[in-house]
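Q: Predict the assembly, please.
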Amino acid sequence: MTETAQALRDKTAIVGVGLKMGKYSDNTALELAVQCYQEALDDAGLERGDVDGIIQLAYGYDYDRFLEAVGTDVRYAYQGWSHGRFIAPMLQHAAMAVATGMAKAVAIVHGRRRKAYGQTADAEMWRQGLGPHGESPAYGAMGPVFGAAIAAQRYFHMYGGGNEDLAPIAMAFRKHARLNPNAMRRDPMTREDYLNSRWIIEPLRLFDCCQNNDGGACIIITSAERAKDCKKPPVYISGMQGVHAGRQFHNLTLPGLGVAQQEVYKYKPTREDLYAYQMAGITHKDVDALITYDAFSPLVLFGLERFGFCGPGEAREFVKNGRIELGGELPINTSGGLLSEGHMIGWNLFIEVARQLRHECGERQVKDAEIIQFGSFLGESVIFRR
Amino acid sequence: MSLQAQSKMIDEQGRYLPFIYPEEIPFWEATRQRQLKLQRCSDCHKVWYPIGSNCPHCFSMNWEWAVMSGRGVLHNYVVMHKAWTKWFESRVPYAIVQVELEEGARLTTNLLDCKLADIKIGMPVEACYEDISPEITLLQFRPRKG
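A: Predicted assembly structure:
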């Protein structure tokens, strides 16, 4: 733990959020981004002139066009490639820019119209040496879901079990979505419904896959000091750690599963793997709810084992009997997650963290929530507290 | 024979073709001759995949194309049920496998001459070849006896 890391604990906060998800055939991605930006400014009680930093994952328009549209000049701008695994690093960059004084307030902005621009995955499957999820079109291996399917299969091979072990995850998140008026998938889901949903790539079914949609999102981050003057209670950023990458960290996989060229071993996090807890001064036992990237249901198993909530191979038992549901020992993805709330490149997961820690979630509120962790299979994490 | 780096991604029937990058040409020239060639490091003698400019194990730039045994075990598989283009409609469900070669590297292909119900992780497999155009032959695997 460096001195700088310790000094950064609780020094920045989320102060405003805006989110739209649904079908917006008559809107442009830019328009959706602007609307969410306005919503987030209003949520924070800030004016556009208070924001002097912008970060976005763009698809269809760029940061400079956005700034022209909203009539603002900033002194910190940064743009990345649209992928769920880059949302935590983006939020971390925003916090670091604010903490180091490079910007006073950074808005993370996103707008998305899928049908207008196609999917990043359509281009990425042609990358040299397989796509980012192991895609190989000439062999009929397409889509991000392929990466999740090969990882799930290896997990079941190493630890036993099978597709039916994913049912409690899909069902728990659907239950949560039914308490979220903004969720996209709100029909009740029984175990039978789950098992009757069609195969996409065996061992994964339709209900193991996220709900993709149009929309936009905005999150505004400023210093703890400024946050006190904003409209809503600050949601402090207490600890963080990055996306782990390389041969042992294939996308949509836990280390050790032997996906692609990964080694095969039973993964257990080391002290170094849990840097965010040390930065925040907590352990996983202090976490009131876990928010994890769930574009596909097996990723929840991987997230749990990555941060030591259970041992290697134990997650498929851990998720049973309501433990990950609201009211359970460790509620996960209380908005319904990407599986049932919707998928705004994952930004909606961070927005749920903010809303839970402000205690504004109504029926789906985690009682007395103080500390919530965003943590996912690639090791990326941000720990928040109210 | 000379194979060009190519960027044609789909044939007239709607089948996806491999996107061949320049440094992968020797691999595809070999499959055309029903041989599996990968890069082998001249310093640490290890083999790797995906194909690249250097040895990822010891970071050496000294390597050569070497003929592999073609033998391996089935390390992983999934069964694709969703038809991504019209061409796949008559082909689903089909298996996509990852084979671990005796030489160590893992490759992603299909499994030929095997019913879906008979696929098992750990089964011995061997390389075989599928011509998909006058210029392109895919490396594939099939069950290996003994």
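Chain A touches chain B at residues 126, 128-130, 134, 136-143, 146, 149-150, 153-154, 157, 198-203, 247, 258-261 (CB under 8 Å). The radius of gyration of chain A is 20 Å.
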